[in-house]
Amino acid sequence: MSGLTTRGGADLGPFDRIIVATGQRPDLDMTRELRLDLDPWLECPKALGPAIDPNLHSCGSVPPHGYRQLAHPEPGYFAVGVKSYGRAPTFLMATGYEQVRSVAAYLAGDLKAADDVQLVLPETGVCTTNFGARSETDSATATADACCADDEKAKAEGATGCGCTTSSKSEPEKAMAKRSACCG
Fold this sequence. Notes:
The chain is mainly alpha-helical. 28% of the residues lie in helices and 4% in strands.
């Protein structure tokens, strides 16, 4: 297989098979008897739909959201994680962790914690679609085995990587890096 990159032609492979994972559709059978308020196109909670519409947002530009955006008319019912995104392909695990934290706080009666939705998405490059905007210098130094922008930069400077688990990071930073990085 061959194709074009910002650096010119590239040959890929050899491959025994290619598995295409395009799109998803939520299985709503188990919720058929519940009162749901779903976005008609994405099949996610209606309040969440405009915030995750893949025609308007990438996974890195989705605003923080919690139990309020995930709620349905059915009391106590919330879909969290990838199920909350319906057909939207832009879900990140860090988003799901914050959703679960917010919903759990709400169910425990701690509205202050439930409303304090804080989502800091890592700049991993997985949400980037404008590859043509990279400079020639960036393209020349890009490493295929980098797990994030910091890892790529560190490797370009001759280091072994970004050090997602180095002792200079706090425990929460290490946990977040490990959850959000492909190499952690």
